[in-house]
Specification:
The complex is a heterodimer.
Chain A lengths: L2 E13 L4 E13 L3 E5 L6 H8 L8 E9 L2 E2 L5 H7 L4 E4 L3 H4 L6 H12 L5 H14 L16 H12 L6 E5 L7 H18 L2 E6 L2 H7 L2 E6 L2 E7 H6 L4 H8 L39 H5 L5 E2 L5 E2 L11
Parallel strand pairs in A: 3-8, 3-9, 6-7, 7-8
Antiparallel strand pairs in A: 1-2, 1-4, 4-5, 9-10, 10-12, 11-12
Helix pairs in contact in A: 4-5, 5-6
Chain B lengths: L5 E13 L14 E13 L3 E5 L6 H8 L7 E6 L2 E2 H7 L1 H7 E4 L3 H4 L6 H11 L6 H14 L5 H5 L8 H14 L4 E5 L7 H17 L3 E6 L2 H7 L2 E6 L2 E7 H6 L4 H8 L40 H5 L4 E3 L5 E3 L7
Chain lengths: 324, 332
């Protein structure tokens, strides 16, 4: 299978006059064509920063990005502006959490769609664009009249569908959803997720889904990555990671989710809180909150290590020494 | 009071808001109302947690405000221990505010940003004359924080709200409510702003309040799995009305109302191997402007028949006090 995106040792540090705080540290992963990767983590784990860095949307003055990110062989992080414009939306699209903020409140949806479409197809006629959006609206389950509406005339669920439809305008190879379904109601979220999975199969797109909700990942992603304090803790097939979590943090997260069926297991919190990310941690970043932590965990950071089932775990309990 | 007797009685409570029409002229037009909460009757026993679930805009937060009398109901009443809250609040507002506590969604908005945690925690104690002097009140605060897992308590006391995390603040707002030994607590989405790994603590504190101090708790949430976890009983709301009510396991495990079924079927499980069939319902909940006369859910319902559009259905009863307000529960 073809690799769509390969990220190597990506680090993001936010800087101001007095100090620097790292948000993402040494993250490496790759996604193949047709895969869907869910990145889960709590607030402050750096999952959104990671996506913004890949999309080159971080302010260059305050955020320092190092590492490499190859998108279809092109290095995204060093690409010049013109080539970046070429890729954005055509090959690489993003849907943000709040579609109401992503759309202009003073233009009709039609105007906004035409605008975006002409970025890459300057000669497109109105009819062409209209037809294309009609197709897309149908795919995401929107009535046709939406085309003539202003954003304030629609509900949150409809706007989110519009945002998804717009992201698909040029059939991008890679779609990034940054908490795209979080603000929606249960029923709408369930239906949109189903649509997205179906569309993906039909169009053979690749997706990165950033969320804090494990159930969203479980319902819609083939691979799962768990982030904590800017670092990748565990990444692998969703059924492996969620059914048999190996990293203590993944286990802790899963213990704090109640289930809808079966007996009510006691929910457990992970004691403590996120470490201070402005200082360098010698050991594993999760060690202060980890129930299994030993002296070694506090002394040295474990390297990511590949397991037999293909997943990668960064924990001393599973080696952590080899591979680097 | 006997264990099984209802402690909180919500009796046909209704809240209508005037609907602002966008048109300039509405002479001769009848005034329109948004029925945010429409004839809701529920009961909560002492030591019981009632979960209220529904989508955004279904009126669950308005119901919470009605219970605390932060909103005056259009009609109907809430009785605590047999006495109307209208009467209670007229007789002794301070005592009423002490016995009925509410925990809001966003802990950062709950606290005065310019006060330290010490000031925030001491104020209710002073107002209600709990503790002999400030030194003793300080002791109570420190003990409360320690018990709530906020250590070092001395350090926390000197901080400002913005210096603490959302989880810590929410714990403080529950601790503050607990100081006053309330007999009725309304928790309006208390954990939806918090990270999953710290939710469990908040949930445990609420459960302790209900079990150990025998308080009645109304837990308002849109998170169905979490509500099932914490609640003894669950009420499902749709457009201001209760559509289904019963024991938590009955309602979630064996839902009778088509709306409840759709809600539950659209909840993703964290088990990736669990195959789910999503029940599709059209559109999103409309604004409750003059709904009816039929079942409010009928326009979106996948089971609706002609009768559903004509008359608001009666409740169909099932064992254990479980009921669903629907015509079509029989052919499931």
């Amino acid at each position: 299978m073809e690799t769509v995106l390969e990220v190597k040792d990506l680090c993001v540090t936010y800087q101001n006059k007095s100090r620097s705080v790292y948000a993402v540290k040494d993250v490496s992963f790759s996604i193949n064509q047709g895969d869907s990767l869910g990145i889960v983590g709590e607030s402050g784990s750096g999952k959104s920063t990671l996506a913004m860095a890949i999309l080159r949307l971080l302010p260059p003055k305050t955020a320092k990005v190092t590492g490499e990110a190859y998108f279809q062989g092109k290095e995204l992080l060093t690409l010049d502006d013109a080539s970046l414009r070429e890729i954005r939306w055509k090959h690489l699209a993003v849907v943000f959490q709040k579609a109401m903020n992503a759309l202009s409140p003073v233009h009709r949806i039609s105007t906004q769609i035409e605008d975006i479409y002409r970025q890459h197809e300057p000669k497109a006629t109105r009819q062409e664009i209209r037809q294309r959006s009609q197709e897309l609206f149908q795919m995401v389950g929107l009535p046709d009249r939406v085309y003539r509406l202003y954003p304030h005339e629609m509900s949150g669920g409809m706007l989110q569908r519009v945002a998804i439809a717009i992201s698909l305008l040029h059939s991008p190879q890679l779609l990034i959803f940054d908490e795209a379904t979080t603000a929606l109601d249960v029923v709408t979220q369930g239906q949109i997720l189903e649509e997205v999975v179906r569309l993906e199969k039909a169009l053979n797109t690749t997706r990165i889904m950033i969320t804090h909700d494990m159930s969203v990942v479980s319902a819609s992603c083939t691979k799962t990555a768990v982030m904590y304090a800017g670092q990748m803790m565990e990444i692998g097939q969703t059924r492996d990671v969620l059914k048999r979590p190996m990293h203590p943090y993944t286990q802790g997260l899963l213990h704090s989710f109640p289930t809808l069926t079966g007996e009510r297991k006691t929910l457990e919190s992970i004691p403590g809180s996120l470490p201070d990310l402005s200082v360098e941690h010698a050991g594993c970043v999760f060690a202060p909150r980890c129930p299994f932590a030993t002296d070694r965990c506090h002394a040295k950071r474990p390297a990511a290590r590949q397991m037999e089932d293909g997943r990668t775990v960064a924990c001393w309990r599973y080696g952590g020494e080899s591979d680097g | 009071m006997a264990e099984n007797q209802a402690f909180i009685e919500i009796d046909n409570i209704t809240k209508w808001f005037p609907h602002k029409d966008k048109k300039l002229l509405h002479i001769g037009q009848e005034k329109q109302w948004v029925k945010a909460v429409d004839a809701v009757s529920l009961q909560i026993r002492r030591g019981e947690i009632l979960g209220i679930i529904g989508e955004s805009g279904c009126g669950k937060s308005t119901l919470g405000k009605l219970l605390t009398r932060l909103e005056e109901p259009t009609s109907g009443d809430v009785r605590i221990g047999g006495v109307s809250t209208r009467e209670l609040i007229r007789r002794d507002p301070k005592q009423f505010r002490r016995k009925v506590q509410i925990v809001f969604q966003n802990p950062l908005d709950t606290f005065t940003p310019r006060d330290t945690i010490e000031k925030i925690l001491m104020r209710p104690l002073r107002l209600h004359h709990i503790g002999k002097d400030d030194a003793q009140r300080r002791e109570i605060c420190l003990k409360g924080l320690e018990n709530g897992g906020l250590r070092p308590a001395e350090d926390i006391m000197s901080r400002y709200p913005h210096e603490l995390s959302g989880g810590q603040l929410q714990r403080i707002s529950i601790i503050r409510a607990m100081f006053l030994e309330p007999s009725f607590i309304i928790a309006d989405e208390p954990v939806s702003m918090l990270d999953v790994s710290v939710r469990a603590d908040i949930i445990r504190m609420l459960q302790e309040m209900s079990r150990e101090r025998n308080a009645a708790v109304a837990f308002i949430s849109h998170d169905i799995a979490l509500t099932r976890y914490i609640s003894d009983r669950i009420a499902v709301m749709y457009l201001g009305k209760i559509v289904e009510y019963g024991d938590a396991d009955d309602v979630i495990g064996n839902p009778k109302h088509p709306y409840t079924k759709a809600l539950i079927s659209n909840c993703s499980s964290i088990d990736p191997e669990e195959e789910q069939e999503h029940i599709k319902i059209q559109g999103e909940p409309p604004t409750p402007v003059n709904p009816g006369p039929g079942c409010y859910f009928a326009p979106r319902c996948y089971k609706a028949c002609d009768a559903c559009f004509k008359k608001y259905p009666d409740a169909a009863d099932f064992p254990n006090g479980h009921y669903a307000v629907c015509n079509r529960t029989a052919d499931n």
